[in-house]
Structures are given as C-alpha cells and as structure tokens.
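Title: Request for sanity check on 3-oxoacyl-[acyl-carrier-protein] reductase FabG prediction

Description:
We are preparing a figure and want to confirm that the structure record we downloaded matches what your pipeline produces today. Could someone re-run it with the sequence below and paste the raw structure tokens into this thread? We only need the token string, no images.
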Amino acid sequence: MKGLDGKVAVVTGGASGIGYTIVERLLESNVKVAIGDLNEERLKEIEDNYPDQVVGVVTNVTSEEDIKKLLTTAVEKFGKLDYGFNVAGMSKSGLIMDQSFEDWKATVDVVLHGVFLSVKHEAQAMKEHGGAIVNIASLNSHVPMFFGGAYASAKAGVEMLTKNAALELAQYGIRVNTILPGLIRTPLTADFFKNEDLEQAFMERIPEQRPAEPAEVAAPSVFLVSDDASYINGTSLVVDGGWEIT
Ligand code: NAD
C-alpha cells in the first residue's frame, strides 16, 4: 500500500485481537507504532519483541491525561504522528430494562468517549502536516444487539463522531474513516465461540458462513490510512462477510 513507509502511528487497544493485528501490518510496512492499552504485561512483551519500532504506553482511553501522555510519548519517541487507529473496546452486556446505569456508562465511556478523546488529541498532533485516522466501530453501529444496547448505541455514536471529525479535519489534510466489523475471532469473542449452537445460528445468518480472522479487518484498516485511500473520507466500511445485507 502506498505511503506507509517511514510513518508513525498510534494504536489504542493494540495489545490484542484486531488492534494487535493492525500493529503487525504496520510494522511489516516499516511504520513506527505507539500502542496505548490497559494490558501492561502484553505491552512490555510487544516492546521487547520490537524495541526500535514500538513504544507501549499503559493507557486507559477514558482518561484524557492518559491519551495526552500516549500522544506525547509517540511524538517524542518517533518525531511526529501520521496515523491514529482507535481500536480499544469492551462491552458490559445487559438488557436495557435491567442494566445498571454504571455498566451502561462504563461501556459508553470506553467505546464512544475513548474514541472522542483519541481523535481530539491525534488531530492536534497531526494538524500541522495532515494524517489519517481509523475508528473501529461495529456492524452493531447499524444493527441492534440483543443484550448489548450500550455497546451498539455507543458504536453508532462512533460512526457519527467519525463523520463529524472528517468534516472538521479535512481542512488540515486529516482523513477520518470508520471500519464496521461483523463477527471476528478474537479474545473478545472467545466465549461466544464456546457455544456451538449460538455459533451455528450466527453462521447461518452470515453469507460467508464463517467469522473473520483479525487480519481481514486489519488489512482494510491499514488501507484506509494509506495513500491508496487518499480520496476516501468520512466513510464507513462494513467488513462483515455480507451479514448486513441478509
Ligand atoms: P480484544 O479484547 O482482543 O482487544 C481489545 C483491546 O482493547 C484489549 O487489548 C484491551 O486491553 C483494550 N482495552 C479495553 N478497554 C480499554 C481501555 N479502557 N483503554 C485502553 N485499552 C482498552 O478485542 P477485539 O475483538 O480485537 O476488539 C477490538 C475492537 O473491535 C473493539 O473496539 C471491538 O468493539 C471491535 N469489534 C470487535 C468485533 C469482534 O467480533 N471481535 C466485532 C465488531 C467490533
């Protein structure tokens, strides 16, 4: 993909799953990466494996101080920031009628407010020279999720936040796009795949009849920041094996 060589990226949630696979793709293309994640042990491991290319910063994306520290570290260590991948996510599940307000707020805080804080400070770091940002939302930005109202509502917010950011940041040469993954095999969905009946029911709804591997989300994510996507801005790319059209 064009334009990646020598760039610098921040990846939140980069210690696992889709985020880590994006990190691997970036490293293959000679991009330096600052990873912000809660998982200190894993960050250390990745840093040890790639001492010249990776810096890990323990980050809670709900903390503006943490996000500022992540961005400052990236720029101090690697000299600039070109790309932001906002991947960190979690879900506290529950039926709307029963869910505690604390659980609802905790989910929205990470999924939506975490992306707001990340985009805000990434944009500040990029505004002098331009860049590109990818926010990982979900097919559940478009499709409701039984037992996952907080998650789906917050992910819908991420899609609209992306469009607003694209509108505001184009003047600085910063493009902002969203990826909406369907069902991906990662630690986040490991419990789901333990239930064979549930898995089968989902496979019948997905035209591809299989979940995706994280690499199938990482590749289009990296494409969206590359110069090959230079005219793509404010868009939502659904990566779901055709699930949404059924
Ligand atoms: P994962 O659990 O493998 O990785 C998520 C990472 O985010 C972890 O390393 C975790 O430590 C980190 N994280 C969680 N809360 C954080 C916080 N407050 N601050 C910083 N880091 C935090 O999950 P994944 O499946 O790779 O998910 C990545 C993204 O993709 C998430 O936003 C998720 O909602 C989204 N997504 C996943 C799927 C799927 O099927 N796996 C589908 C649609 C969307």
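Thanks, this matches our download. The chain has one domain: 8-238.
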